[in-house]
Amino acid sequence: QVQLVESGGGLVQAGGSLRLSCAASGRFFRINAMGWYRQAPGKQREVVAGITSGGGTNYADSVKGRFTISRDNAKNTVYLQMNSLKPEDTAVYYCNANANIYQISGRNDYWGQGTLVTVSS
User: Fold this and answer.
1) What distance in Å separates the CA atoms of residue 18 and residue 22, rounded to the nearest whole number?
2) What SS3 class is residue 74?
3) What number of other Cβ atoms are within 10 A of residue 103's Cβ?
4) For residue 34, which of 78, 82, 91, 100 has the smallest C-alpha distance?
5) CA distance 31 to 99
6) What confidence score (pLDDT) does residue 121 get?
7) What's the whole-number mean pLDDT along residues 83-112?
8) Under the phi-then-psi rule, with left for phi > 0, alpha for psi from -120 to 50, and beta for the rest, what region is 45?
9) 112 and 22 in contact (C-beta within 8 Å)?
10) CB burial of residue 57 (10 Å; 0-12, 13-18, 19+)
């Protein structure tokens, strides 16, 4: 199994920045793609950004040019640098990781508990 722990959330004014981190631990062979999702009250969870094992990235249109996802494979950690934050970015942010427990089997998605980001106007 894989355990994911997010950190870095908090309260920030519009236009400010936050840096989220997510560290993976547990027993696994390899972590594949990782990503960040968010969910606002009463709304569905949505993809914010994703990154492949090779470093390829993709972003939701709403955050392009403002957010940057990165990863450190040696530390089993993924980051989300959030700049020019807007009130609409307020949500609980969740870390996701696709991982293989074994070399060619046991592939599953894992989720962190979430970290709250609140952007005030």
Assistant:
1) 13
2) helix
3) 8
4) 78
5) 4
6) 93
7) 95
8) beta
9) yes
10) middle
Write phi, then psi, for 74 (nearest 5 degrees): -65, -30
Q: To the nearest 5 percent, what fractions of the chain are helix, strand and coil?
A: 5, 60, 35
Residue whose tokens read 């989300």: 80
| Residue in the structure block whose two tokens are 């599953």 | 108
What is residue 104's predicted lDDT score, i.e. its pLDDT?
87
Residue with token string 């950004």: 49
Q: Using an 8 Å Cβ cutoff, are 25 and 2 in contact? A: yes
State the pLDDT at residue 105. 86
pLDDT by residue (tens digit) across 65-88?
999 999 999 999 999 999 999 999
Provide Rg for the chain, Cα atoms.
14
Q: How far is CA 101 from the centre of its chain?
A: 20
Tokens of 7: 């950190």
